[in-house]
Specification:
It contains six helices and no strands. With 171 residues, the protein is an all-alpha fold.
């Protein structure tokens, strides 16, 4: 099995990014929008090592995000696992060396993550477990679409580095 160093450092790196995401990433805001570095790393890991590893890392990263953010426990995990599953479609059948595959994986992964997370929040509010109400259309327009653009631009910046990483030989 040919696995890069990123594979073995993924969990500590994700947990560090979870802490960073909840504290210092706010300083990277552009026009009030901050990137989702944890999701970016999960998508990159999924493209490199496949859906199985990506969903495992997404679960761990989601728990880390929920612990540091104070959100509903496992909501980020479920949403991030859905995003990793969508990004995993680009691992084998489509080549990640095609520049559109990582960009589309990041854009779709960000949208899936946000929609699943918002659905979980809405379901919790509907059942009475939460008093938080989220205006869905405004949230998608004002937060999700700008974050999707920001994350996709960051993936575009990472494309030269992503293409230099060895691809997983696991089947």
């Amino acid at each position: 099995m040919n696995r890069g160093i990123l594979y073995y450092f993924m969990i500590p790196l994700l947990l560090f990014l979870c802490l960073l995401q909840s504290t210092a990433v706010g300083r990277l805001k552009i026009a009030g929008v901050k990137p989702d570095l944890v999701l970016l790393l999960v998508i990159v890991g999924t493209l490199l090592y496949g859906t199985r590893a990506g969903t495992q890392w997404a679960f761990i990263a989601g728990i880390g995000l929920d612990l540091f953010s104070g959100g509903p426990l496992a909501a980020s995990s479920l949403a991030m696992m859905a995003a990793a599953a969508v990004a995993g479609l680009g691992h084998r059948p489509l080549s990640r060396f095609n520049p559109l595959v990582p960009l589309m994986a990041m854009a779709l992964g960000t949208i899936v993550y946000a929609v699943v997370y918002l659905l979980i929040l809405g379901l919790l509010a509907l059942t009475g477990w939460s008093t938080l109400t989220v205006p869905l259309f405004e949230t998608l327009r004002d937060i999700v679409l700008p974050v999707t653009l920001y994350n996709t631009v960051l993936m575009w910046v990472l494309l030269p580095f992503l293409n230099r990483m060895p691809e997983s030989q696991d089947l």
